[in-house]
Design brief:
With about 150 residues, this protein is mostly helical. It contains five helices and no strands. It has helices at about 1-5, 10-30, 50-65, 70-110, 130-145.
Length: about 150
Amino acid sequence: MNVLISNTPLVAAFTGFVVAQVLKIIFLLIVERRFDIHVAASTGGMPSSHTATVTALTTSIGMIHGAGSTFFAIALVFSIVVIYDAVGIRQAAGKHAELLNEMTLLINDLFEHGFKHKDLKTLLGHTYPQVIAGILVGSLTGYLMTGVF
């Protein structure tokens, strides 16, 4: 267990995730004036916790091993793939889910008995501002966790 706790990039990544998830609750409280603890366990939202997590990891690895290291290269490529997925593919999947939800409602209206639809989750991806906020949260978290602690 001590090995995991002393692994600075791992702790930075985990901290970046937790900070982003807590910020989701705070942003919801500020923007929509409602408190919902369940937002911390959901996908999507401001800021992107996926982005914050991988950015904190990459920042910490870069500070420890240098930007020219193989470790940093691996972390950077991994981060780019995750961020691309968060803003592109998962957002498209959310739009598909919205369309499928509408279609199941139409089908449900056609068949009064026997067809029960369950809405698909539509908030899957992130907008560019959410990803940029995730990058900022992750970079700051990675820097503070590596440089200060």
